[in-house]
Amino acid sequence: MSLRRSASTIVITLLLHASVIHAAQTASCTFDTFSAPSGYSLSQVNGVSDDGTVVGQLLNTNTQQYEAFTLSASGVMIKYAAPQSSTTWLYGRNGSGVNAGYYQASANPAHLHGFLLQGSTFTAVNHPSASNTWLFDVNQVGASVGSFSASASVTKGFRLVNETYTTIAYPNALTTYAMAINDNGEVVGSYASSIVSYGFAWNNGTFTAINYPKSKYGTALLGVNNSGMIVGNHLSADQAHGFIYENGVFKNIVYSGAKFTEAGGINNNGLISGQIYFTGGTSLGFTAVCK
After folding, report:
1. CATH annotation of 6-290
2. What phi and psi, each to the nearest 5 degrees, are found at residue 209?
3. Average pLDDT, stretch 159-173?
């Protein structure tokens, strides 16, 4: 979001001044990488399910259209475009193979609509009080999270359980993005009151601030597993640098030789997904086990 977690070509820019002062460590990571198929480039690498399936978005380099994808642990990639869409994103996937995402409608006005996808079964998710709905994640017990906007100036998060929406909105914030939920109901995301944004964890109405130490430009929290391990990115100019946060400790995710390494999600086995950027503009997707 560039932080490169985009919302329909709408870039979610997450900036902040961290309150933590301790220096972050560098994690020891073992990476497996993958590239886009011929005729495509990687736009985003987002969540990863417990079976190692990665979800994200591709750019068709011929048509310049964006398509969602799933990539299994065995390397099988499936591309997907939502019905009547101009652009489709997948952000999260649970252990039962249910994907969470959103799309931009091809009709005017080109609103955003959330959806769940399991196999070929498509389920629309549209907040009843919104013109735009983003769906970012779904957990194993069927609770999903996302954000909605009824106006251009205010965006709020939500949790959806059994067709009941619970608003997640940080007090006095103009934007709240609920990005991920684990099976215990813990939600992580980011909020902004002005141009400065902050990371948060949310549980049953209680917010906890989580901000990368001494980050000049920002923190984005993007994934949380059942053990409470969180992944996210901190911003340096137009780059997003991945990190792990666990038990009060930040650890950087660094791929040797890369310009920067960006986190996308984490599963309950501790497998992290994301994207590696190299000087010259090339990139690879990755899964990694980090300690």
Report:
1. 2.120.10.30
2. -75, 135
3. 96
Report the alpha-carbon distance of residue 134 to residue 143 in Å, rounded: 14
Bridging pattern class, strands 25-26 and 249-252: parallel
Query: By CB neighbour count within 10 A (0-12 exposed, 13-18 middle, 19+ buried), where does 111 fall?
Result: middle
| pTM of structure | 0.91
Percentages of the chain per state (helix, strand, coil), in multiples of 5:
0, 55, 45
> Could you tell me the residue ranges of all domains in the chain?
6-290
Residues 6+ apart with CB under 8 A from 261: 241, 242, 253, 254, 255, 274, 275, 276, 277, 286
pLDDT in tens, 68-82: 999 999 999 999 999
Residue 216: predicted pLDDT: 74
Query: Higher confidence at residue 215 or residue 207?
Result: 207
Coil/strand/helix, residue 141: coil
14 — pLDDT class (breaks 50, 70, 90): very low
> Counting every residue, how long is the chain?
291
Distances (CA, A) of 275 to 42, 47, 155: 8, 11, 27
What's the chain's average pLDDT? 91
pLDDT, position 11 = 29
Give the integer Cα–Cα distance in Å for 257 and 129. Answer: 47
